[in-house]
């Protein structure tokens, strides 16, 4: 639990203090999208198939700490520094780096005891993280296109 609390505090302080490259509405929609995406993925992989979860095999209030405390902050940090104007190689390395960070963080979370695997393997996560991070980038690009269209129609 100490690892979780320290992680939530540290990652949120970093997200709060980092120089912002995202507009406030982009940060808001990203945070909400991250929570919805997590809910959808967890509904099936955790609740339906019981492959992993937080703390216990039951739905509990404690699981809200990592869901609300980690995912929005990490998503904002990832998207804030994403190399939008760089080549595909640079973008791929960036996503790979964040995927490695996510794998290490997941491993530490399992070791600390607040997250458990129940049939889930870390290498499944290695396949999922690049896809999920790509979805986050795609979502932000979509939001920016919507905003561009809105401004053009005014």
UniProtKB/TrEMBL annotation:
InterPro entries from the UniProt entry: CBO0543-like
TM regions (residue ranges): 61-81, 93-110, 122-143
Keywords of the record: Membrane, Transmembrane, Transmembrane helix
Highest rank taxon of the organism: Bacteria
NCBIfam families the record matches: CBO0543_fam
Protein name, per record: Uncharacterized protein
